């Protein structure tokens, strides 16, 4: 019986604890959030501060990703007042950064592409959309890692990588979030185009709406021409669920969370439509920071 979960969490999130010893703390905290929300709400500031300290001391990417999922779930819990959660993060100091919100978003935007599992991807991707929808002033203050600057110096050896590490562009946080939402769409589109079997719903859509040229199918920006059909979006959703059904998810955890019922494709389409309509000028400005494939992926779903 968990009488004082916050005390156990303080111990498990001790920044001096070996990362391997806290590997499953993310799942444990999510269980507490889902099953004891009122008790956890009383200690939200302490929990957030402990999570941030643990992230800054963490060496394992798997643990860092699991902690990001917790933050994403807390974003959802704060809805429809997500701006209050942002302000909570801003009020908590973070070593080497203006505040904890700045630190979290720098790390989140770097690691989002490494998140694995259908449930985890749904929670983090939709949480990013919620953050963007706030249009909070703190979002506009931050620049985060953008795109990799390709090196022309030939093959990168291990020693060369140490002396000349990868260089990245910097981009405004709102633009980066939109880029990550576009990347989620691109990844699902690629699953449909490359991973579908011959009897899938996508085959019929492909015959009608998609160029059959092999190079286009393998291209990251390959999308149907013209107006995408509902069948195409349904095929995207099906491909996402099938691709992520790899047995790695915590079935007990995801099954207990209503967010697991989210249709990620429909969610992103709905969000992008509403955001583009309500914030036309901002949306158009953010699109200018995206790559062609990201821009095309978003424009495709907006035509639906």
TrEMBL record:
Residues 43-277 form the Importin-7/11-like TPR repeats domain. It comes from the Eukaryota. Pfam families: TPR_IPO11. SUPFAM superfamilies: ARM repeat. Transmembrane segments: none annotated. PANTHER family: IMPORTIN-7, 8, 11 (PTHR10997), IMPORTIN-9 (PTHR10997:SF9). This is Importin-7/11-like TPR repeats domain-containing protein. It comes from Solanum tuberosum (Potato).
């Amino acid at each position: 019986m968990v009488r004082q979960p916050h005390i156990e969490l303080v111990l498990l999130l001790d920044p001096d604890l070996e990362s391997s010893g806290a590997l499953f703390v993310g799942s444990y905290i999510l269980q507490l959030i889902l099953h004891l929300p009122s008790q956890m709400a009383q200690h939200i500031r302490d929990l957030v501060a402990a999570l941030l300290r643990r992230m800054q001391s963490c060496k394992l990417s798997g643990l860092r990703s699991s902690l990001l999922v917790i933050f994403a779930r807390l974003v959802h819990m704060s809805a429809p007042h997500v701006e209050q959660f942002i302000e909570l993060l801003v009020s908590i100091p973070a070593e080497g950064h203006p505040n904890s919100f700045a630190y979290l978003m720098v790390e989140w935007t770097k690691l989002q592409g490494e998140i694995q599992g259908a449930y985890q991807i749904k929670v983090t991707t939709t949480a990013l959309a919620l953050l963007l929808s706030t249009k909070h002033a703190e979002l506009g203050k931050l620049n985060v890692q953008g795109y990799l600057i390709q090196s022309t110096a030939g093959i990168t050896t291990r020693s060369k990588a140490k002396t000349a590490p990868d260089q990245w562009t910097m981009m405004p946080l709102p633009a980066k979030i939109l880029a990550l939402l576009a990347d989620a769409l691109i990844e699902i589109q690629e699953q449909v185009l490359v991973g579908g079997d011959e009897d899938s719903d996508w085959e019929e859509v492909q015959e009608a709406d998609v160029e059959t040229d092999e190079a286009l199918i393998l291209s990251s920006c390959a999308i149907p021409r013209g107006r995408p059909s509902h069948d195409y979006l349904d095929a995207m959703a099906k491909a996402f669920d099938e691709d992520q059904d790899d047995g790695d998810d915590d079935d007990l955890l995801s099954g207990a969370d209503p967010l697991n019922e989210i249709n990620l494709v429909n969610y992103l389409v709905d969000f992008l439509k509403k955001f583009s309509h309500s914030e036309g000028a901002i949306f158009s400005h953010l699109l200018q920071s995206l790559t062609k494939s990201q821009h095309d992926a978003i424009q495709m779903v907006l035509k639906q």
